[in-house]
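Example A, followed by Example B.
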Amino acid sequence: MMFHYGRCGSTVLSDMLSQQNRIFCLGEIYNYNLDFSDVNLLDPVAKMVNSNRNDQAELSLNDAITFLDSVVTASNIGIEKDVVIFEVKQYDFDRRVFGFSLREFLSGLVDRFNLEVILLERNNLFDRYLSERLSQKTGIYHLKPDQSCPADQRLTVDTVDLSMYIFKESADYLKNRMFLADLNPCCITYEHDISMNPYVAFYKICAHLRVKAKHPQINFGLTTPKAKERLINNFEDVINVLKKNGFSWMI
């Protein structure tokens, strides 16, 4: 399981891992907002994932585990894959896709599967906030290397919203690290393992999963490569709020 918070480099990592002969990446199978109809999944898996999205009711723990078990089983039809990776976001719990807690989900997964956990974080929550809001504005969440960033990459930050976001996400980080600690997760941070060189995170994960790695291609680039002051209209206001709340290091 790859557990993350979004805008942390999960897409580039999943793409690199999916290029390995022994790994099959399912992506965010519980994300109802994604369309898997044209994703490179095996047909029975794609049909199963898409059919699950027709019911937007809150999933019970048993339904979520049973669904995952069915998808993993279908993933192994006709291919030899030792490792199946699926993604879960904190967002899935926040927006009530799941009718259970992360702790309950982990307990259910450990009972059913030989579970390994990849914990993907972005420590600079201001950067993550900025990436989220810019992507929401432009509608562009991922870029191929031959694509350029949209020209209109500026926004005015709601400083109250930013402060609430950082405090809430910081609390989630601490809580989830505690829940995951006993599972000895492979801890990946965007700043140290992905942003400058995604191969660092890739080989770290392969070593954790005990998979002999084949050097992959990097098929995605940065969506917000510009300096922060060139992206934010009220940059001085943001600086003052971050300093006031003890987050000046994020600037």
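Example B, a separate protein, is given below in the same form.
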Amino acid sequence: MKSSTLKISIFYLFTLFIFLIVVPIFLWLIYIISFPPKIQIQSVQSATSLKSVISKFKSGDLLFFSGNHIVEKAIKTCQGGPFSHVGIVIFFGKIPHILEVDNHPKKLKRGVHLITLSEKLQLCSKGRDVNYFEWSSITTSKNIDYNRVQELLTPYKDYERDLTFFSWLGIFERREKKKSIFCSELIVIILEKLNLVNLLHSPEWYSPQNLRDFAGIVLAPDTWWTNQGLVTF
């Protein structure tokens, strides 16, 4: 009799746990995925074509993307803005590249890498991202050298993009042995090491959205940051 009562008590406790803990978390996750912040329609309608501005890109310029992937929707909701990914333009000769950390399919590009702008946009156009990005132009008197950037990337060459949901929420600290980094974290580290900005917070504090909003950043002397709006491709 006692065994039967114990089993019933355990069953009721388990059911209570499901309804009070698991169900609210599940519904909250559904909300995060279903209703991420979106770019304003008028901004999309007034977007500039890539062909008309690509010749104006410079090393150091930032490109902010708004992803459609389920994890990127969650990122947008957690940070309260429509941008889920960021990369920095670096020229090698006359060819623009994007420095980023991302998890494209294994046969393409994963982790920290430099990828040509044309290759990046081809990956975006396959449905993983929407067909526009926001361009922030950085003007500086400093020389941003491709080889110097390659040197700065050396400590992070084996890192992959940190897409851990709880890392974005700041609930758990990242494990020391885990070689992962936020896309925005990598970019602010590079910007700081290139002496373009001074950071008011630790690098992991920055998200694509607050970086785009110029939060927690002080520009170095002879450096200017201009938001150029949306670009379609």
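On Example B: Residues 41-232 form a domain with the endopeptidase fold (from Nostoc punctiforme) fold (CATH 3.90.1720.10).
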